[in-house]
Design brief:
alpha+beta, globular, protein serine/threonine phosphatase activity, magnesium, 465 residues
Length: 465
Amino acid sequence: MGCVHCKCCSRHPKPSSEDPEEPRKDDPSGKYALTERSIECVPVPSHNFRLEYSFLTQRGYYPDYPNKENQDSFCIRTNLRGDPNIHFFGVFDGHGQFGTQCSNFVRDRLVEALLEEPSLLDDPIKAYNSAFLRTNQELHESEEVDDTMSGTTAITVLVVEDKIFVANVGDSRAVIAVQAGEDVLAEDLSCDQTPFRRDEYERVKACGARVLSVDQVEGLKDPSIQSWGDEESQGNDPPRLWVQNGMYPGTAFTRSIGDSIAEKIGVVADPEVSVVHLKPDQLFFVVASDGVFEFLSSQAVVDMVAAYSDPRDACAAITGESYKLWLENENRTDDITIIIVHIKGLSHAGVHSAEGVNRVIRPTISKGVKSSFGPSITSVSEIFTSVRRGDGSDLHSCQCSISMNRSPAIVVPSPTHGWGLKSHLWLVVWESTNKSPLWQLRPRITSCSSSTALQNSVIVEVRSG
């Protein structure tokens, strides 16, 4: 969810007489390419385990805004302060007219602000709070980015030896997978900050916000009813924040970085921070924008990751499923960004004695509404990436990373054939040994169209690794 003027304003689907454009063979930007990502691996020598991770970002499909950029960005930094035991993962979901600029600003600045905090190792929670508020203030003061009605959410994970510190502002999410017998269970590391939460609702109301759904603001429903059920059932018309005498800003979240007008009614940049002592039964964690979690539960995401040994496959499968579910429920998709981090080789011998998961949620809200070292950088151990931007003709691009060790073939539609299919995308990964599909993304496609698609496809062999 975002602001009412941006990606959430199309909650009432409009009929479209045009199909999205098909990929162009001569597209110079490469937006239609299936880009291959390697698995990155960084050691945590203090406790003799390693992190294996991959990531994927996909621009949303916005039929009413064909030139809309991908407003998601992400940051992965390893060996912070030259220490091989400290690593950072973050996803930033921008919103508003200048959401891309806000997202990129925070992507670039937040980790640097965190590194500059003298309390980073002694008190990471304090350092996180200070870094978020400092970044927020710098964004307000920036002459290059207008954050009056724009901003970004931020979900970040800081690995410090055998602990992870998760700082969240907004409605993106981090989840960890826990082995429980034969089951793999999802445990949320963050809690979405929206008016559905009673504590957040009461906080923003105390700051002067009106909390109403769009239907209530438009007079279609009784505004005196201050109960909206839950996010599962009311996600298509969620409660939003409005100034007392205006129809703005309409944010569906209660915290963000930026959004200087919304800040006056309680939309603050103070993060909620959780702390987890890693244990051998914790298999991996996921950091993703709400483009993933809008229609997929935390458990569904964990189940999909657990089904793949390779995080690249899991990134592709989750992105594809999210994309498909968006199109089944709405006439657009959100931007989708996901980072998957496997925890490998952590043993009981390398873990400090601790009973259960030591989790601490410590939100610290500022009273007002105002708002020496460097990391080692190598081409393998550090990735500092923003999403690729679209340029108008890309109504339905897919930048999935689908490189596996099973030597599959990737089947994509040939741009030289205009089949005119309603499915805006056909993407299948086939196991070369038994010719059976391993993963498919084929929204709204019939068996007849399937046959036509296969007859007009290009087979691309992908070598192992």
